[in-house]
């Protein structure tokens, strides 16, 4: 299998990242296996669960359906970029306070997706939140506490 | 020993601290099984049967071996030969020979997705590519994919070695692995005397637990013939037991490290990948990781059985249920062992009936071998019983909750399989439902074009006790290290710590809980059966009580007193005769030098029984009679939790289980094609509820403390999946005037029942 | 999965060259949300995937009085985030907000949806009822065909070897034009349509329907332009009676199969129900 690798120069969570990848490798796999950021999770590999959600240039996407090669020159944000040395992102804090996670596997995807909503629409209705998050599956919580956590952050900002 | 107290003066219990593993989980730092990284790690890919039922004629791995980057290949023949033997892995027994065949087939494939070979290679893509080069020759046989077809005359027999136990008689050449009967009183006579008799036949389809994290396992078989395994599992010790048995090794040769787990619901108890990656590691000399694709999770793990259930109940003129009879046929999948035994315990549990008969059948079919799914067997039978109950209530013109109250099982009632109920909260939950805002509010107006209906149903799960160990050690700064072996799927390391904290009189933030591996934690049975907060919590209580005795000893040394002159109350140790001589827990912790070494303790339990629990759910549905589209407009979960240790997470279990039940009722099913294979092997067409498909789920906690636990805990995780299917069926009937006897109650079925279509 | 190479040309000419050179072994990729799943599932065995998102014309949106032109790589969100487009073409936005969830809509668009050519595609029927035209370029030059001629079978389209869809042109039919798309799915999002209908009507000054188009999804080997049902409306009043008649005819024009998403009768029944609903909604959009 000698196909030329792709040299990707990108920005991940605000920092420049550079790596070589086989062209058929997904962004999700590149993040997890090459860059070493395992926060984004694999759930289905066909865009139906949102566990792999990351943000590219401010738009949330399923990273399992993006080739690593495609983010050359783009701005990628993952769950690992949400907290800073100063502390958790308000959404992360709210998820903890509202018990918005049980097993936690869907949590990174939900956090990135919710951030994608609140960054553009600071005061969404509950209907809008549920619609926005319909692409993220949770099998443990029944979603209520997740919605509550997002609303809490929206109300406090 | 702390007795169950009526006082609610708990300091820690009943609060909602931030869970100890929370920060790692919201930042993406938590390591789940698929995140494991090891030097030299290589990847496995598994080859699975495309046929539902076939004889394996030949497996040719030669082309795969030539692919650059491949380290090793294996087939079922690489697993050791097994005789039929049963081992106890903590939530049931398994036949090792069949488990081994299920993990990788040697003679026959019994379902599409049945593993037949595997490859280990430098990365996942090469492994998948090499796996595609493995050629398997099959002699395809006819397949049967439901209990009726599997038991018809002339049906293909799945397992030649299966000797069925039919009411004690040994039967060969059968797909019925077992038939049991439980009978009390004289049901036939009672039915003859009944005023109203309702008998209905229900069908349900196979469903999957649907955890978002696929199965994974990493193994390294070293030069000393010791295997280290890293996996997302509901129990490291059961994995050790099973893997050692499959590989014919002593348990001490296998060390299992449980990583964080992304959901289990019963489906991550059996081993599928661990023996495979172990063999590949032995052959390649490298650590090997396998992660199941989603389609393999559906087709190669352990879904929950569908089946056919007949329920017949009869009432006298005063609406007392005087007879109840059922035939429960559940699909075991490719090998015996469906949840039918548990179904027997639950089917009539909510009712006090003197004359009962339960016939139960465990039937093999060409589908993946079924495994536990949250109260296994109970949701299926609850659908049937709760629908018939609703029909009878209406025949008597009674409020369905009143009908259930009149016939409610309580302490002292004999369950239809013979067990007598200890103190249980069935009546309390029903009364809370009757008083609830939901039950007493108007239906309200549905959206345009919809009709709305309301339904109620109950459910029961017996919960289990089993074995757990907790070890405590005191740090000099007053914090306590807590090591336990119950993998934490939903906040239990905190709920366990909270119980120890309550005993020790210190805040739970002082605890450093961790889930150990099989060489650092004391033995624990699975995180399942709703047992963790109950049993491992109990072990934590015992460990905390032991620790108090140890620390009292230390005080005696420090103050030169006799041990029985030391008291402990409210987190403070003091000399009974001189209360000025005292230490808080933290103070004592920093004064332990020269008192006899590090202060530590252990607590261990092996609990025969647990507090069974009941739940009642109320649901309003909005149906579009023109399309069959159904939305849940309002949903209330009421449940007896004994004592809510960690209320936010108790409510989380209630809501989460209810939502799984809603999905089961409305849309989830294994859609089988003519050739016996599953069509919907993706989350696209295996339709689980999204955030947009649900309203807020109201949760009402009822507490009837369990006398068998120091804080009155009852298991909470499984009960909530039992009522939804019946509740939704009853709500649809209220809306449309038609009954539903087949699940899922998907839109096409609703149109069919309404007579708008006939297919 | 057959390992493939990645190319990201910056002109249509380059893209056409690569596609022509590799024929069946190369495919263009816009959002990738269908293609990558198909490659991994073994549907395609490719030597190269051609990322077309770096080609400027394919990312352009032009909206003026004459109509709307959407580059074939434009993702859904760019349409529904545009207030003007949302106001003038609600029938297209119905579909843009339905394809997958938000994450999918960040990447997928009408162009890829059309080229993927499944009968259940959400984007194709709305394009048909808007009289959209597909603009194609290849080695032998450019050509345009009506969208209703684009799909030739389940998963196959009218593109020849080396040809690429460059853009979609949608005429602006003014204020007396109304269109709507509705699909039936068991959940509220994320599902593939069990059956779906797009309708559009143009009402003349005399209050009679002068143009009508009805297109059906998931009920045949390709999206179906229901010509009989559409024509039945011409010259009629835009009211319940004529809509009901058209809906009944639409039901007779579909040929669904039974599969894991629905049965034959269920789909036929839904076609009739949804045709009526979308015609009513199209009328409301004219009046509103």
The major sheet of chain B is characterized as: 7 strands, mixed
Order of helices and strands of chain A: EEHEEEHHHH
Helix content of chain B: 25-40%
- Regarding quaternary structure, what we see is heterotrimer
Helicity level of chain A: 25-40%
Q: What is the number of beta strands of chain B?
A: 30
Largest sheet of chain A: 5 strands, mixed
Number of strands of chain A: 5
Low-confidence stretches of chain B: 1-6
Overall structural class of chain A, as computed from helix and strand content, comes to alpha+beta
How far apart the termini of chain A lie comes to 52 Å
Contiguous helical run count of chain B:
20
Q: Number of helical runs of chain A?
A: 5
Shape of chain A: globular
Beta content of chain A comes to 15-25%
Helices and strands in order, then pairings?
The complex is a heterotrimer of chains A (157), B (759) and C (288).
Chain A: E1 6-12, E2 15-21, H1 27-35, E3 53-56, E4 59-62, E5 75-77, H2 90-97, H3 107-118, H4 126-132, H5 144-156
Helix pairs in contact in A: 2-5
Chain B: H1 22-27, E1 42-48, E2 54-60, H2 62-66, E3 70-75, E4 86-88, E5 93-95, H3 96-103, E6 108-109, E7 115-121, H4 124-131, E8 135-140, H5 147-150, E9 164-166, E10 169-171, E11 176-184, H6 187-193, E12 196-204, E13 216-221, E14 227-231, H7 236-247, E15 254-258, H8 274-284, E16 288-291, H9 294-300, E17 307-315, E18 321-333, H10 340-346, E19 355-364, H11 378-395, H12 400-406, H13 426-435, H14 437-440, E20 451-461, E21 466-474, E22 480-484, H15 492-504, E23 511-515, H16 532-559, E24 566-569, E25 572-575, E26 578-584, H17 585-589, E27 600-607, E28 613-623, E29 630-640, H18 647-666, E30 697-702, H19 724-736, H20 747-753
Parallel strand pairs in B: 1-16, 9-11, 14-15, 18-19, 22-23, 29-30
Antiparallel strand pairs in B: 1-7, 2-6, 2-8, 3-7, 4-5, 9-10, 11-19, 12-17, 13-14, 13-16, 17-18, 20-28, 21-22, 21-27, 24-25, 25-26, 28-29
Helix pairs in contact in B: 10-11, 11-12, 11-19, 12-13, 15-16, 18-19
Chain C: E1 5-7, H1 12-22, E2 26-29, H2 35-40, E3 48-51, E4 61-63, E5 67-71, H3 76-80, H4 83-88, H5 90-96, H6 102-105, H7 110-116, H8 124-129, E6 133-138, E7 141-146, E8 151-153, E9 156-157, E10 164-171, E11 177-184, E12 195-203, E13 209-217, E14 224-225, H9 227-231, H10 240-252, H11 264-287
Parallel strand pairs in C: 1-3, 2-3
Antiparallel strand pairs in C: 4-5, 5-10, 6-7, 6-10, 8-9, 11-12, 12-13, 13-14
Helix pairs in contact in C: 10-11
């Amino acid at each position: 299998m000698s196909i030329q690798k792709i040299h990707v120069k990108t920005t991940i969570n605000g920092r420049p990242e550079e790596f070589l990848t086989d062209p058929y490798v997904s962004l999700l796999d590149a993040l997890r296996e090459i860059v070493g950021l395992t926060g984004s999770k694999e759930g289905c590999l066909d865009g139906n669960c949102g566990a792999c959600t990351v943000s590219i240039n401010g738009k949330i996407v399923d990273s399992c359906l993006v080739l690593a090669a495609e983010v050359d020159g783009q701005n990628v944000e993952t769950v690992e970029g949400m907290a800073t040395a100063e502390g958790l992102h308000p959404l992360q804090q709210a998820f903890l306070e509202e018990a918005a996670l049980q097993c936690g596997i869907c949590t990174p995807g939900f956090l990135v997706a919710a951030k994608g909503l609140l960054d553009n629409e600071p005061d969404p209705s509950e209907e809008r939140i549920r619609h926005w998050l319909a692409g993220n599956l949770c099998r443990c919580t029944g979603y209520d506490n997740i919605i509550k956590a997002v609303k809490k952050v929206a109300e406090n900002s | 020993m702390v007795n169950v107290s009526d006082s609610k003066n708990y300091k820690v219990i009943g609060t909602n601290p931030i869970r100890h593993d929370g920060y790692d989980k919201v930042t993406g730092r938590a390591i789940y099984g698929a995140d494991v990284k090891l030097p030299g790690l290589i990847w496995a890919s598994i080859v699975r049967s495309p046929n539902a039922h076939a004889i394996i004629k030949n497996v040719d791995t030669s082309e795969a071996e030539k692919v650059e980057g491949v380290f090793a290949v294996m087939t079922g023949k690489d697993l050791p030969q097994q005789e039929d033997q049963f081992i106890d892995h903590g939530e049931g027994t398994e036949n090792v020979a069949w488990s081994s065949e299920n993990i990788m087939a040697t003679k026959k494939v019994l379902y599409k997705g049945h593993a037949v070979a595997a490859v280990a290679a430098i990365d996942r893509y090469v492994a998948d590519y090499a796996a595609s080069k493995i050629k398997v020759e099959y002699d395809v046989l006819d397949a049967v994919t439901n209990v009726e077809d599997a038991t018809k005359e002339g049906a293909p027999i799945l397992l030649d070695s299966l000797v069925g136990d039919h009411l004690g008689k040994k039967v060969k050449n059968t797909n019925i692995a077992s038939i049991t009967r439980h009978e009390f009183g004289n049901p036939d006579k009672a039915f003859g005397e009944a005023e109203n008799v309702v008998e209905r036949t229900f069908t349900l389809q196979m469903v999957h637990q649907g955890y978002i994290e696929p199965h994974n396992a990493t193994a390294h078989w070293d030069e000393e013939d010791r295997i280290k395994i890293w996996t997302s599992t509901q129990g490291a010790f059961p994995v050790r037991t099973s893997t050692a048995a499959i590989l014919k090794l002593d348990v001490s040769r296998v060390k299992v490290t449980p990583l964080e787990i992304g959901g289990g619901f019963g489906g991550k108890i059996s081993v599928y990948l661990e023996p495979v990656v172990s063999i590949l590691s032995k052959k390649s000399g490298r650590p090997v990781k396998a992660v199941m694709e989603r389609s393999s999770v559906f087709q190669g793990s352990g879904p929950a059985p569908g089946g056919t259930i007949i329920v017949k109940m009869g009432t006298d003129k005063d609406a007392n249920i005087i007879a109840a009879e059922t035939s429960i046929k559940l699909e075991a999948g490719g090998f015996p062992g469906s949840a039918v035994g548990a179904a027997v315990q639950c089917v009539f549990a909510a009712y006090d009936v003197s004359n009962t008969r339960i016939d139960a059948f465990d039937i093999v079919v060409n589908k993946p071998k079924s495994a536990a799914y949250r109260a296994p067997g109970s949701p299926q039978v609850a659908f049937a019983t709760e629908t018939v109950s609703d029909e009878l209530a209406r025949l008597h013109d009674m409020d369905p909750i009143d009908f259930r109250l009149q016939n409610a099982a309580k302490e002292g009632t004999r369950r239809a399989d013979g067990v007598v109920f200890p103190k249980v909260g069935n009546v309390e939950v029903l009364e809370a439902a009757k008083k609830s805002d939901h039950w007493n509010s108007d239906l309200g107006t549905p959206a345009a074009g919809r009709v709305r209906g309301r339904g109620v149903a109950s459910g029961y799960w017996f919960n289990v006790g089993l074995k757990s160990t907790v070890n405590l050690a005191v740090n000099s700064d007053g914090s306590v290290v807590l090591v336990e072996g119950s993998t934490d799927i939903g906040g239990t390391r905190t709920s366990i710590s909270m119980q120890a904290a309550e005993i020790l009189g210190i805040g739970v933030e002082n605890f450093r809980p961790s889930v150990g591996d099989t060489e650092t934690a004391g033995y624990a049975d699975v995180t399942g059966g709703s047992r963790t907060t109950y049993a491992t919590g109990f072990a934590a209580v015992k460990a905390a009580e032991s620790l108090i005795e140890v620390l009292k000893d230390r005080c005696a040394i420090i103050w030169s007193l006799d041990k029985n002159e030391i008291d402990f109350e409210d987190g403070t140790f003091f000399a009974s005769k001189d209360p000025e001589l005292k230490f808080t827990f933290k103070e004592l912790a920093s004064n332990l030098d020269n008192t006899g070494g590090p202060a530590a303790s252990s607590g261990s339990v092996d609990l025969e029984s647990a507090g069974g629990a009941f739940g009642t759910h109320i649901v309003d549905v909005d149906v579009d009679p023109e399309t069959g589209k159904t939305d849940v407009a309002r949903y209330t979960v009421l449940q007896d939790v004994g004592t809510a240790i960690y209320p936010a997470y108790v409510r989380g279990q209630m809501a989460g289980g209810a939502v799984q039940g809603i999905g089961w009722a409305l849309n989830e099913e294994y859609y089988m094609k003519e050739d016996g294979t599953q069509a919907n092997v993706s989350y696209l067409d295996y339709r689980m509820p999204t955030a947009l498909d649900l309203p807020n789920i109201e949760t009402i906690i009822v507490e009837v403390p369990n006398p068998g636990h120091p804080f009155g805990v009852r298991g909470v995780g499984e009960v909530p999946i039992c009522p939804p299917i019946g509740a939704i069926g009853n709500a649809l009937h209220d809306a449309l005037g038609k009954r539903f006897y087949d699940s899922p109650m998907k839109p096409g079925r609703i149109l069919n029942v309404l007579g708008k279509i006939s297919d | 999965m057959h390992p493939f190479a990645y190319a990201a040309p910056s002109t249509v000419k380059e893209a056409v060259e690569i596609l022509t050179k590799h024929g069946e072994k190369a495919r263009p990729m816009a959002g990738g949300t269908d293609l990558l799943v198909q490659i991994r599932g073994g549907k395609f065995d490719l030597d190269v995937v051609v990322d077309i998102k770096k080609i400027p014309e394919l990312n352009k949106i032009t909206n003026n009085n004459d109509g709307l032109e959407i580059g074939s790589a434009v993702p859904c969100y760019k349409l529904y985030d545009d207030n003007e487009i949302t106001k003038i073409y609600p029938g297209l936005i119905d579909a843009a907000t339905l394809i997958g969830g938000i994450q999918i809509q960040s990447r997928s668009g009408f162009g890829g949806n059309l080229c993927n050519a499944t009968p259940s595609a959400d984007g194709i029927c709305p394009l048909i009822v808007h009289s959209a035209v597909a603009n194609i370029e290849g080695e032998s030059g450019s050509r345009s065909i009506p969208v209703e001629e684009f799909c030739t079978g389940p998963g196959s389209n009218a593109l020849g070897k080396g040809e690429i869809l460059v853009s979609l042109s949608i005429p602006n039919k003014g204020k007396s034009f109304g269109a709507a798309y509705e699909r039936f799915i068991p959940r509220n999002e994320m599902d593939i349509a069990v059956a779906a209908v797009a309708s559009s009507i143009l009402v003349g000054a005399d209050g009679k329907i002068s143009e009508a188009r009805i297109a059906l999804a998931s009920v045949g080997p390709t999206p179906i332009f229901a010509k009989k049902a559409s024509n039945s409306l011409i010259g009629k009043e835009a009211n319940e009676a004529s809509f009901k008649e058209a809906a009944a005819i639409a039901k007779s024009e579909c040929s669904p199969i039974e599969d894991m998403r629905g049965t034959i009768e269920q789909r036929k029944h839904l076609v009739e129900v949804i045709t009526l609903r979308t015609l009513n909604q199209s009328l409301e959009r004219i009046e509103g």
